[in-house]
Automatic annotation (TrEMBL), chain A:
Keywords: Cell membrane, Membrane, Transmembrane, Transmembrane helix. It comes from Paractinoplanes globisporus. PANTHER family: ABC TRANSPORTER PERMEASE PROTEIN YPHD-RELATED-RELATED, INNER MEMBRANE ABC TRANSPORTER PERMEASE PROTEIN YJFF. This is ABC transporter permease. The chain crosses the membrane at residues 35-53, 59-80, 87-104, 110-131, 138-156, 176-199, 230-249, 284-301, 313-331. It is found in: Cell membrane. It comes from the Bacteria. It is a multi-pass membrane protein. Pfam families: BPD_transp_2. Signal peptide: none annotated. The keyword Ribonucleoprotein does not apply. Its main location: membrane.
TrEMBL record, chain B:
Keywords: ATP-binding, Nucleotide-binding, Repeat, Transport. PANTHER family: CARBOHYDRATE TRANSPORT ATP-BINDING PROTEIN MG119-RELATED, GALACTOFURANOSE TRANSPORTER ATP-BINDING PROTEIN YTFR. This is Sugar ABC transporter ATP-binding protein. Transmembrane segments: none annotated. Pfam families: ABC_tran. GO terms for molecular function: ATP binding. SMART domains: AAA.
Length: 337, 509
């Protein structure tokens, strides 16, 4: 009997392997391109159904509105690929905006430096606590969420003092445009491209995937796991601070009441974009599609007019649940083979 | 000059002397088998060599110099690579990225050169018989191919010593041949290989030297070709020790009456599971203790788990008391009177944070409940009965099981199984890690239970326990039944002879 098994297995194994390869290719494509496909479908339907959607201005509006969430989701993509989560970004976004508005009185450079330094440092603390004390990212960044919100309220006198942007060049960044498209969109686009190169074409990027794929194996293979973890939380903090700064430039002041729940929107966009919440797989292209998809849904609801804009949250939520269920199923398909 | 020299290394963990003055020498180009049963100290020795553990005592010399590796990375940098039983790569990353992680070729801009990486990966892996698309995630490859990628990676980093921990346990016969080809090549290049395996045929095919560990000590070291198979098995299982002991060292009674004409209470037929089990068939009559013999990795635990529904079967059939369960789920198995005592008591058996009472009652909750509400009085009665019968020494039924001794934990586990009123009791190493007194009590309990008409399947690495406890012994090797010992042939000599018998020639083609 044993000999019979020995004889028939090679052929069966080859066939198994071939089937596994095919399934994997299909599943992988759905995972990577699913959000993009849905985005295209939604956009095509909107182009036909909503005349206002078709205008160039509307497109520019969608893109400008999507720039800050894009930056936050970009950082979040790196964090989630390592298997972590960063809940502090919503607070850092608000804090960054207030700091930028306040610091704008000292010039253009200061308006960027203040939020980047503070939010970057909070990222360092997040990363160090997560990497070196092995505390759960959820708890560490929840603490940072509360801490950063407190800090924002303290410097804005319980939110009652609104700092106006005092630097014209900085204000111009938030409201000017190049080729009809806001500066912040170009900034986000450049950072997205840099992020793509970093993630897919550098040793750091591959290490990010390795840490999320299997931390123990990565460590055994010589990946500096702790440094990578600190790195992704610093990136996430910096990008959240920058997002806050460009939002302040657009609004002309450091608004203290925005940003609640931004972290959840970012996580939703990343997951919709095909990044696994468990880490180890995901792409920035997917995240871009995820952010735009959520942005387009919001825009459409505004187009319809008399629909309460909170429906956007309901739709986003339902969509997210759908994606996570689909992801779980797709991953299982991959593993079984 | 030896490549690696371990001299008089000792390592103690709380309560266990894992290594006791162990010495081990590996020469360049040598394939050195490291063998021993579970708990013999193989893993500890490997971990000391690779820097996972620091020895309490003794010395490590590497390439003639005293060496001390603080972490596995230190050992790797020095040229000692380890291939673990479970592949330690990143399943979600592509094959070539896994191969090159941390050593990726870069272009002039400092960016990774994907094209070159894929080309080189393809070329390197072709030498290991891996032909799958190297851009696919590693996890989509067969386990054997993943093992080869791990090996290729280990050798790529200028390894001088490669440690292989059961490298063939998940390989197909064809892949084993490829692996052996690679090993021969490494051997020719002067790389020293430590080869851990329980498959005797493989050891004799590929290894030059052997070191046998038992209970943390080296019991033999030398050329493998000079050591007879039967000697090797005897040394591993500790036959010498049992010769010194007087007969009847276990608490099993020697006289037993099994109604050989009775219908079997358990019938396992054709149990087959990918690579691990091949057509395992045996039955157990009421009141009979059937031993499963064989070395580690022969498929004994898998067989037991499969019968209890906890191990996936591709084919086969389990019948209990005339009821055909086909391939039962755990729930079906329990409902039909199959009770399994798993090998790893702490991980799969007791719930350390619950009390003795709660642990015993766990499996009988459905029986003592009415409309979903649990009857305390009935639980108390059951707990009381089994604590007395099994002589469980606890301060009260409410003491936490985690605070009891190993022997008493085992008894709590048995009490839980017995409370369900099983027809068949499957015991995997029931006396491992418990003291002598408790061991004797558990052994006589097994006899008692059999006398009451329960069918018992017993797995034990203690050859003596197996021989004296079992009425019949089914011997497994590499997931295949290679013989059954009955009546007068239930002896340690026959057991070893069966285990050591060379595989039929067509298997070692």
């Amino acid at each position: 009997m044993s000999t019979e098994v020995a004889r028939e297995t090679p052929a069966a194994a080859v066939e198994d392997a071939r089937r596994a390869e095919r399934t994997d290719r299909i599943v992988g494509t759905i995972q990577r391109q699913g959000a993009l496909a849905v985005l295209i479908v939604v956009v095509v339907i909107s182009l036909i159904a909503f005349p206002n959607f078709r205008s160039f201005d509307n497109t520019a509006t969608i893109l400008v509105a999507a720039a800050p969430p894009m930056l936050i989701a970009l950082g979040m993509t790196f964090v989630i690929i390592t298997g972590g989560i960063d809940l502090s970004v919503g607070s850092l976004y608000v804090l960054g905006g207030v700091l930028a508005a306040w610091a704008s009185q000292y010039g253009f450079a200061a308006a960027f430096a203040a939020p980047l330094v503070v939010c970057g440092l909070i990222g360092v603390v997040n990363g160090a606590l997560i990497a070196y004390t092995r505390m759960a990212p959820f708890i560490v960044t929840l603490a940072a969420l509360l801490g950063a919100r407190g800090l924002m309220r303290a410097i804005s006198d319980e939110g009652s003092e609104t700092y106006l942007v005092k630097n014209d060049a900085f204000k111009q960044l938030g409201n000017g445009s190049f080729l009809g498209i806001g500066y912040q969109v170009w900034l986000a686009a450049v950072l997205v491209v840099l992020g793509m190169v970093l993630l897919s074409r550098t040793r750091f990027g591959h290490s990010v995937y390795a840490v999320g794929g299997s931390e123990d194996a990565a460590a055994l293979m010589g990946v500096p796991v702790r440094r990578i973890k600190v790195g992704v939380y610093v990136m996430s903090g910096l990008l959240a601070g920058l997002a806050g700064a460009i939002n302040a430039a657009k609004l002309g002041s450091g608004v203290t009441v925005l940003g609640t729940g931004m972290e959840l929107d970012a996580i939703a966009a990343v997951v919709i974009g095909g990044t696994l919440l468990t880490g180890g797989a995901g792409t920035i292209a997917g995240t871009v599609a995820g952010v735009l998809l959520l942005g387009v849904i919001q825009n459409l609801i505004n187009q319809v007019g008399n629909v309460n804009s909170n429906w956007q949250q309901v739709i986003s939520g339902a969509f997210l649940a759908l994606v996570v269920v689909a992801q779980t199923y797709l991953v299982k398909l991959r593993r079984v083979n | 000059m030896p490549l690696l020299e371990v001299s008089d290394v000792s390592k103690t963990f709380p309560g266990v002397r894992a290594l006791d003055q162990v010495s081990f020498t590996l020469n360049p180009g040598e394939v050195h088998a490291l063998v021993g049963e579970n708990g013999a100290g193989k893993s500890t020795l490997i971990k000391v060599i690779t820097g996972v553990y620091q020895p309490d005592d003794g010395e490590l010399r590497y390439q003639g110099e005293p060496a001390r590796f603080g972490t596995p990375m230190d050992a790797q940098h020095a040229g000692i690579s380890t291939i673990y039983q479970e592949v330690n790569l990143i399943p979600l990353m592509s094959v070539s990225h896994n191969l090159f992680l941390g050593r990726e070729p870069r272009n002039r801009l400092g960016l990774l050169d994907e094209g070159r990486m894929h080309r080189e990966a393809r070329a390197i892996l072709a030498g290991y018989g891996v032909t799958a698309d190297i851009r696919l995630p590693l996890g989509t490859l067969a386990l054997g191919a993943q093992q080869m990628v791990a090996l290729a990676r280990a050798v790529m980093i200028d390894a001088k010593v490669v440690i292989m921990d059961e490298p063939t346990s998940s390989l197909e016969p064809r892949e084993v041949e490829t692996l052996f080809g690679v090993i021969r090549e490494l051997h020719a290049r002067g790389i020293g290989i430590v080869y851990v395996s329980h498959r005797l045929d493989e050891l004799y095919r590929i290894c030059d030297a052997v070191t046998i560990l038992r209970d943390g000590r080296v019991v033999h070291t030398g050329r493998l070709a000079d050591l007879e198979r039967i000697r090797l098995v005897a040394l591993m299982l500790g036959r010498e020790m049992s010769e010194i002991r007087r007969e009847g060292a276990t608490a099993f009674s020697s006289e037993k009456a099994v109604d050989t004409g009775a219908a079997p209470i358990l019938r396992a037929s054709g149990l087959t599971s990918r690579r691990k089990l091949h057509d395992i068939t045996f039955d157990v009559r009421p009141g009979e203790v059937v031993g499963l013999g064989g070395l580690l990795g022969a498929g004994r635990s898998e067989t037991i788990k499969a019968i209890g529904g906890a191990y996936p079967l591709d084919d086969g059939d389990v019948q209990v008391d005339g009821v055909d369960l086909k391939r039962p789920t755990t729930v079906q198995a329990v409902r039909n009177g199959i009770a399994v005592q798993p090998e790893d008591r702490k991980a799969e058996g007791i719930v350390a944070g619950l009390s003795v009472r709660e642990n015993i009652a766990l499996a009988v909750l459905p029986k003592v409940s009415r409309l979903g509400l649990v009857s305390d009085a009935r639980i108390d009665a059951i707990v009381e009965r089994y604590m007395t019968r099994l002589r469980i020494k606890a301060s009260s039924p409410d003491q936490l099981v985690g605070d009891l001794s190993g022997g008493n934990q085992q008894k709590v586990l048995l009490a839980r199984l017995l409370a369900t009123g099983p027809k068949v009791l499957l015991l995997d190493e029931p006396t491992r890690g418990i003291d002598v007194g408790a061991k004797a009590e558990v052994q006589s309990l097994i006899d008692e239970l059999a006398a009451e008409g329960i069918g018992v399947v017993l797995v034990s690495s203690d050859a003596e326990e197996l021989i004296e406890g079992a009425d019949r012994v089914v011997v497994l090797r590499d997931g295949v039944v290679v013989g059954t010992l009955t009546g007068a042939s239930v002896t340690t000599e026959d057991l070893m002879a069966t285990i050591a018998a060379a595989a039929p020639p067509e298997e070692a083609e």
